[in-house]
Amino acid sequence: MVCVLLCFYGLSIHAQTTNQQVKRLQRAIFVYNFAQQVGWPNQVDATQFKIGVLGPDRAIIDFKSLAQKRNINNKPVTVVNFNSVKDVKDVQLLYVNKSFNFDINYILNKISGQNILLVTEDYNYHTTMINMVNVGDSFEYEINNKTIDKEGFKIANSLQQYAISSSQKWKDLYQNSEADLEASKKIEAEQQENLVTKDAEILSQKQQINTQESKIDTILNTVVTQDKWIETLSNQSELHKQRFEDKVKIEQDLEDNIKRQIEFIKSQDQNIISRNLEIQKQHNFIQNQIAEIETKEFILKQKESQLNTQKTINILLITLISLAVLGGILIYRSYLSKKKLNKKLKDKNAAIQKQSLELEIKNDELEQFAYIASHDLKEPLITITGLIDLLVEEYEDKLDDNGKMSLNFISQSSARMQKLIDAILQYSRLGKSKNTTNINCNSVISILKDDLKNVIDRTESTIITTDLPTIKGAELELRLLFQNLISNGIKFTKKGVKPIISIDCNLQSNVESVDYWVFSITDNGIGIPAKHKDRIFSIFQRLHSRDEYEGTGIGLAHCKKIVEAHSGRIWLDSEVGKGTTFYFTIPA
Amino acid sequence: MQINFPVDFTLLIDDDKVINFYNEKIVNKHDDFNQVISVNSALKALKYLEDASKGLAIKPNLIFLDINMPAMNGWEFIEEYNKLDTDFTSSIKIILLTTSNNPDDYKRFKTIDLLEDFINKPLSASLLTNLIESHYKQKTV
Predict the structure, then answer these.
(1) Helix (H), strand (E) at residue B39
(2) pLDDT tens readout for residues A345-398
(3) Does A558 have pLDDT greater than 70?
(4) Among A215, A494, B84, B127, which residue's CB has the most CB atoms within a 10 Å radius?
(5) Any idea where the Response regulatory domain is (chain B) (predicted)?
(6) Smallest CA–CA separation between A539 and chain B, in Å?
């Protein structure tokens, strides 16, 4: 940039001295410099830089001559001429001078969009893109950024810096240039005069140049010294090289280090890989375990469900068991109470058995007593009667009637006592027989008729029987029963009345529908008063004196005992003077 | 006095002296009986029989035996009697003479073959006659 400015500066100086020709060159240089300082949007595409000149301008010659020496943006420059605005195309830069009177707006309109930089001369301020103006021997320029930006050009900052930035300045310049032109014309004359003096100055300057050459020599010397300096510098660079080698070594070391580290890293990698493998294994193991856990969980769940079911079963079982236990307790309690009751019952039974045993013993004792009593009582009685018989037999002649009668009474009393004792003995033994057999009552009656034949014949009694049943009982006792009742019927009749005894039997059933036989023995005897109905069944109860009707008074007591021993009942119906009917029952 | 008595010698066994006195009288009065002797206990009777078996006393043809006696009763006497020599005892008849009309006693009597008869007291001439009829007349016939 400095270089460019120097160039301008230099040129401006030349313009002052070489007049019109210099100015034309300057114009071309300005334009080339503009081109150099502007960036085109599609600059790279083009192989050459084209400059167009509008109108029959002599500047074209200047541009072409400069194109021989300079490239723009490293491209060869060609210069073309356009006679009218509408011909303008295929150029990067168009140069227009106002002196040819082209309408600037028309030009701008025409070149719009074609990437053409418009450089004008002497146009009004900010009407073109880059506008040049003659200022003395040189040029000034202004840049219309508006139109430049519109076409996409990029202006270098240096170019911008030296451009004129206001229209006022522009006008001033314009006027100054007018004035300058006048002044310069005057100065030109003065300069013509000064030229002679200048030639002399040139001579002196030539001399100065010589001195300058010598100065150049000295400068060359300094260059040599500088070469030497450079040599030392190269030596220094050797040192640097060695240092560099050292550094390389260090770097190699570092590399080795790095390699080792890399190896270490690799081993670590392998380690990591193995670890990874291990981790993988462990992972697998864990997964297996997870699977196992899952299966176990499943099993657990199953077990849990099993447990639950078991629980419910257990609960059920527990309730069942508790129920069973409760039941068991109840049963046990009832069993206990039963046991207690049973025990009581047993005790009572035992007591009863004991009592019955005692009773049996007592009965046996009683029987034994009765038997022994009767036996022991009978013996002396028998002896008495026997002795009385002997006495009567041997001493009858020696006794008077009173003595004989006394002996007779003694004998009778003894005999009666014997009968009583026998009756008691018999009574005590009744109901003891346990030999129950089937007894045909008809045959019992017929046997009795034979036994009582004497009595029946003597009293002319009649015994009538219907067909009697076969019953269960003790034969001897039943025979005694019938015998007693028949005997009574025969015995208790009025004198002169022939006894008629009728025996009957029929089957009846009681409320509990248990069948039993009812026997009836009816006589035509003296009858029994109603008030004695119960009394006559007691032992030794007599209703009549022995003188009227003999007997021990024990017969009906026997009958009652026999009937009751056969689980029966005995009673009577009687009408005094007409007869009596005895009834007794025997279970069928 | 008849020379040939169906029952030559009678032994009475009863603990009651009065009964023995009475029975001796009855037996003596009867024509079919010759001699009679009485003992008042079964033990004495056994002693007498042992003596008789040795020839020290007269051997009885008939024994009237009471059942109810102190020390040794009739049944116990029978047991001891069975131990005697059968050659000696076979010709002796034993008749139970008792006041007992206890059927148990009668049943027991039936079980013992050696006992000839079961008679209730008091003894009388008619009883003795019956006895001779049933136990001795057949033999003599």
Answers:
(1) strand B33-39
(2) 888 888 888 888 888 888 777 777 777 777 777 788 888 888 888 888 888 888
(3) yes
(4) B127
(5) 9-136
(6) 21
Tell me the domain boundaries of chain B: 7-140
Tokens found for residue A418:
């014997």
Paired strand residues for A571:
A583
Q: How far is CA A184 from CA A23, A171, A195, A239, B4, in A?
A: 14, 19, 15, 65, 246
pLDDT over 70 (residue A7)? no
ipTM for this model = 0.70
Q: Which of B102, B105, B124, B126 to mutate to test the interface with A (most CBs of A within 10 A)?
A: B102
A422 contacts in B (CB within 8 Å)?
Answer: 101
- Concatenate the DSSP letters of all residues of A106-172 into one string: HHHHHHTTTT-EEEEESPPTTSSSEEEEEETTEEEEEE-HHHHHHHT-EE-HHHHHHSB--HHHHHH
Residues forming beta bridges with residue A507, ordered by sequence position: A517
Neighbours of A142 (CB within 10 A): 23
Share of chain A above pLDDT 90, in %: 8
Fold category of B7-140 in CATH? Rossmann fold (3.40.50)
pLDDT of amino acid A138: 80
Domains in chain A (CATH in brackets) are 2-165 (3.40.50), 434-587 (3.30.565.10)
Helix axes B74-82, B42-53, angle to 10 degrees: 20
